[in-house]
Design a protein that fits this description.
Blueprint: H1 2-10, H2 20-27, H3 36-48, H4 54-66, H5 70-75, H6 81-98, H7 102-131, H8 135-163, H9 169-194, H10 201-209, H11 212-220, H12 228-233, H13 237-248, H14 256-275, H15 287-305, H16 308-313, H17 315-321, H18 327-351, H19 357-386, H20 394-416, H21 419-426, H22 429-461, H23 465-483, H24 502-527
Length: 528
């Protein structure tokens, strides 16, 4: 009765509906690590889903680090310009080619099945990459790797958000993207270690090891439960309820939270189905959907056009422009940068619940603009003296390296820590796979374009290429200010009608109130 009184007394209403379940979950003071079932679920999610982005991080750092390895450059005849660009961009191109199929696969085989399919494809790509005998085969292998990753990312990010308890969901989905830096650290360390090996195995070993995260996913995803929302959407309500009872109520079948949760999912999916044709055109069918698509497509562009791919894939080239020529020094800085990225990413994840989503995105874009402006000035000073014999501007070179390192926490606070948290919250269940696929499409298109043109821009106009990013980052600041909505402190179903009419949102909220009230009244009668 106490919880119900709190719900009634709160009288909180918003465009997203009355956040009944949010307040119930926030009133739960038992930490996740003291709940055996939930704890085991989270430990399974780490290798099966949260670690999916390790592959992407490994890939970006692998290409970055191998360009410093003499044996790799010798075997592939030191790729430069457009060839270097297409080698790096082929991973994103493969991802783009697979995106039209992702929602269909996700709907047919479920979140777990999609992770399994994508992981098997990436294992095949890694094997071909390690066996490559020429640059064409190497590019083809990277295309296959890229083809497999979106299925895992779309399904994995959705599954994390849909299985996680509401209190921990922002942390879980943020850790999903932070795992990217785990992959970077592993790749940087492995390539640094194999660099001393004579011959081709110095680059073949890291190429084979890219399959390691996928192997873990293939094994551990078999032990994960399916998404309750996917099960309800396929008329398997009893299975969904059993999963929620086990993990969200620690086996308590009388839990009012689970009763409200299952009713909220059922009602919300029913309302979504009535408005959905399960078509890509649904993403443009209403003003609310068009707003979601606009925000999502821009977030995809921002995640790759904010200057991060320039650093991730061409770190060595940037250090050369900053006046650092020694290969060993470059590799040490590369490993250090990867570790710094991981640490700053974890710190960003730890603080995201303390601030509103929109505020963090504003801080992220403004700080990135400031960093890139300072970095551009430092690079200009470095290169202004580079052509003069006997003259080097060491201070400007150090400043350039400083701005490269300070860039990462500024990026992580928004475009890393919040990305999938925000996407899972913005999109309702029926369109979540397509919505995240749109994010992936624009992100991969942007990634393909930038990784292809970055080496061309650096080669032709050197430091002036950074000015292009300064202009784009200015646009990002303006767009986030005017178009990004706030999504903090709501369950996924409470956010399902974020851009729709208030009556629809209240209808879903009312169903939860009735479910919770009914269970409470029943309990009162039982103990009267």
């Amino acid at each position: 009765m106490g919880i119900l009184n709190k719900i009634k007394a709160g009288n909180v209403a918003s465009k997203a509906g009355d956040p009944v379940l949010t307040r119930i979950s926030e009133a739960d003071n038992v930490p996740w690590y003291r709940k055996p079932n939930l704890r085991s679920l989270y430990f399974l999610l780490v290798p099966a889903a949260i670690g999916i982005e390790i592959t992407s991080g490994f890939d970006s750092q692998l290409i970055n680090a191998l360009q410093i390895v003499p044996a790799w450059n010798k075997y592939f005849h030191k790729p430069e310009g457009s060839l270097s660009g297409i080698i790096a961009a082929s991973y994103s191109l493969g991802a783009i080619l697979s995106l039209p199929f992702i929602p269909w696969v996700d709907d047919k085989v479920g979140r777990r099945g999609s992770i399994l399919v994508g992981s098997l494809i990436m294992i095949i790509g890694s094997i071909i990459q390690g066996l490559s005998i020429n640059v064409g085969m190497y590019i083809a292998a990277r295309l296959i790797l890229g083809f497999g990753i979106p299925a895992c990312i779309v399904a994995g990010s959705s599954l994390i958000g849909e299985l996680g308890y509401p209190k921990e969901r922002p942390y879980l989905t943020s850790l999903f993207n932070v795992s990217y830096f785990v992959g970077q650290v592993l790749a940087a360390g492995i390539v640094f270690g194999t660099n001393s090996i004579k011959g081709d195995w110095s680059w073949r070993i890291p190429s084979y090891l890219q399959m390691a995260p996928s192997l873990l996913q293939v094994v551990f995803v078999l032990f994960l439960p399916e998404s309750p929302r996917w099960l309800v959407g396929h008329d398997r309500i009893e299975e969904a309820e059993a999963i929620l009872i086990k993990y969200h109520a620690e086996g308590n079948a009388d839990s009012e939270f689970v009763k409200g949760e299952i009713e909220q999912i059922r009602t919300t999916l029913q309302l979504e189905k009535e408005a959905s044709r399960k078509s890509w055109l649904d993403l443009l069918s209403t003003p609310g959907m068009r707003r979601r698509t606009l925000v999502t497509s821009h977030l995809g562009l921002f995640s790759q056009w904010s200057g991060n791919t320039l650093i991730s894939y061409y770190f060595g080239t940037l250090l050369t422009l900053a006046g650092i020529k020694d290969t060993i020094t470059k590799q040490k800085l590369n490993v250090g940068y990867a570790c710094w990225s991981l640490v700053s990413g974890l710190i960003a994840t730890a603080v995201i619940k303390k601030f509103k989503r929109r505020s963090l995105y504003m801080f992220c874009t403004v700080s990135l603009l400031v960093v890139y402006t300072g970095w551009t000035v430092a690079m200009q000073k470095t290169n202004a003296t580079a052509g003069k014999k006997g003259h080097t501007n060491r201070s400007a070179g150090i400043a350039s390296v400083f701005f490269i390192f300070i860039y990462q926490p500024c990026y992580n606070i928004g475009f890393n820590a919040l990305t999938y948290t925000y996407m899972v919250e913005v999109w309702p269940y029926m369109e979540r796979s397509r919505g995240i696929a749109v994010f992936q499409l624009f992100g991969r298109l942007a990634g393909f374009f930038t990784t292809f043109v970055n080496p061309i821009g650096l080669k032709n106009i050197t430091w002036k290429w950074l000015v292009v990013y300064c202009c784009w980052l200015t646009y990002e600041v303006i767009f986030v200010w005017f178009f990004f909505p706030e999504t903090a402190d709501r369950t996924l179903e409470e956010l399902a009608f974020l851009f729709e009419d208030e009556a629809t949102a209240r209808h879903a909220a009312k169903a939860v109130e009735e479910a919770v009230h009914h269970e409470t009244v029943t309990d009162e009668k039982r103990f009267a």
